Amino acid sequence: MEQTEERQSGVQRGYIKGEILHVVFRNEENFYTVAVIRVRETNEEIDEKKLTIVGVLPHVEPDETFLFFGSIADHPKFGIQYKVEQSRRDLPQSKQGVVKYLASDRFPGIGTKTAETIVETLGETAISRIVENRDVLRNISGLKEEKAAMLYENLYEQQGVEQVLIVLSEHGFGVDLALKVFQVYKTQALEIIKSNPYQLIHDVDGIGFRRADQLGASIGLTGNHRDRLRAGCLFLVHELCIQEGHMYIEAEPLINQAVALLSSPNVKIQREEIQQQLVQMHEEGMLVVEETRVYTKSLFGAEKGIASNIRRLLSTEVKEEFPEAEFLKTLGELEEEWGIEYASSQKQAIQEAIAKPLMLLTGGPGTGKTTVIRGIVEVYARLHGLSLDPRAYTASNPFPILLTAPTGRAAKRMSEATGLPSATIHSMLGLERWSWRVRQR
C-alpha cells in the first residue's frame, strides 16, 4: 500500500486520497469548494466509495487525484462530508506518468513529443522543477518561448498555489490567509515570500508584522537586519495613524514603540538604530520626516493637498454679501418661528458660514452643531430667495445645497434635523464602496 499517511508531532493524521468526479460549487473569490470524489485510499473510518468534500481548495478538475487532510462531519441536510483542512495534488511519480500529465489537455500546445523531451531533460521531478524555476525550460530543445511561458503559467496556476500553501503552513498560516497571499501575487508569490516577506503587511489584508516577521526569520531577516527594522517602522507609522486617526506620529513615541516591537529576549534593539533607519528612509523617500513628525508618504501628500485646497477655498470671492442688519433680521425671524434663541457663538457660526467661502464648525456631542447647520441652511436660503423644497428643482436646475457627512448614520441625522436630502461624502463624490473608483456622472 502506498505510504500516503503523514505524521504530525508523532500523531497520524486523518486523510483521504480521492479522485475528483465533479465540482458541485466553487467560489472563485475565496476558493471555497464543494466537490464529489471517488475514494481511492483512506485511514478514516468510512465505508463510502463516493464522498462529498468541502473546504478552501486550489483549482480542481475532474479526474485529478488529491490527498485531503481533515475530518469527517455529518451535515444535518447533506449528510456525511469531509471537511478539508489541507490538500495536496497527487502528482505522477514515474516518467511515463509525468509525460502523460504534461501531454494532457491541461497544457495546450504541449503534445506527447514535447512532453517526452521535457521529461528526458528534467527527469521525473520535471513538474516541481518548472514551478520552482521557470528558467529550466530554456534548456528544452525545440520549446518556443511562448509555449514555455504558457506551460509555466498553467503549471503554476495548478501547482504554485500548493507550493505557497505548503511554505506558509509551515509558519502557522491558515489556508484562507495563504490563499489570500496567492491571490494578490499570483506567479510572484513564492519569490516575494522568500525575498521580501514584509511586503505582505502592506498588500495582504490580515497579515501584520508578527506573521511577516516569522517569514522574515526563515530567510535570515532577524535581529537588527536593516529590512526588519524598516518594516517595523513602516508598520508602526501606518498602524498608529490608522488606529488613532492621526496624520503623523511624533518621532519619540514611534522610536519607543519600534524598540519594543523589534526587541526580543535575545536581541535588544537600540534607539540609535531606529533613528538611523528613519533618517535613511526619509532620504530614500520611504517615509517623510518633518522636524519631529513622521508621516507615511500617502498621508503627507494628503495633508499637503488638503492645506492647498483650504487656501484655494479661502481665496475664493464670495459672490453676494449681505449687510449685518439684514442677516440679524432674517435670523431673528427664524428664531421666532422656531421658538428658539441661538447662543452668541452659534449666531457667529451661522454668520461666518454665510459670509465666508469656508467655515469649520467644531464641538462635542450635544453642543448644538446640528441646530447650527439647520440655521445656516434656512438663513442662506432666505437671504438668497431660494426654495428648500427639493421638488422645485430639476436635473438641469439642481438643488443648490449639498449636505454630506462621513457616515450614513451622520447623514441620516442631518437629514432628519433639516428636512433636506443628505448623503455620505463618498457617495456624493461618486466613489464605489469597495474599489473607490470614481464613477462617470
Secondary-structure blueprint:
Blueprint lengths: L6 E2 L2 E2 L2 E12 L5 E11 L7 E7 L8 E11 L3 E11 L5 H8 L9 H11 L3 H7 L12 H25 L5 H11 L3 H7 L3 H5 L5 H10 L7 H19 L4 E2 H12 L8 H13 L3 E4 L2 E4 H18 L9 H15 L5 H12 L13 H15 L20 E2 L2 H11 L4 E2 H4 L13
Parallel strand pairs: 5-7, 11-12
Antiparallel strand pairs: 1-2, 3-4, 3-6, 4-5, 6-7, 8-10, 9-10
What does this 3D model show about the protein?
With 441 residues, the chain is of the alpha+beta class. The protein folds into six domains: 83 residues, OB fold (Dihydrolipoamide Acetyltransferase, E2P), CATH 2.40.50.120; 75 residues; 37 residues, no CATH class; 94 residues, Winged helix-like DNA-binding domain superfamily/Winged helix DNA-binding domain (Arc Repressor Mutant, subunit A, Orthogonal Bundle); 70 residues; 40 residues, no CATH class. Helices cover 46% and strands 16% of the residues. The chain is built from 17 helices and twelve strands. The strands form four sheets. Strands 3-4-5-7-6 form a five-stranded mixed barrel. A hairpin with a 5-residue loop joins strand 3 and strand 4. Helix 1 packs across helix 2 and helix 15 crosses helix 16. The N and C termini lie far apart (66 Å). The N terminus and C terminus are likely disordered. It holds the Pfam family AAA_19. Keywords: ATP-binding, Nucleotide-binding. InterPro entries: Coronavir_polyprotein_1ab, P-loop_NTPase, RecD2-like_HHH, RecD2_N_OB.
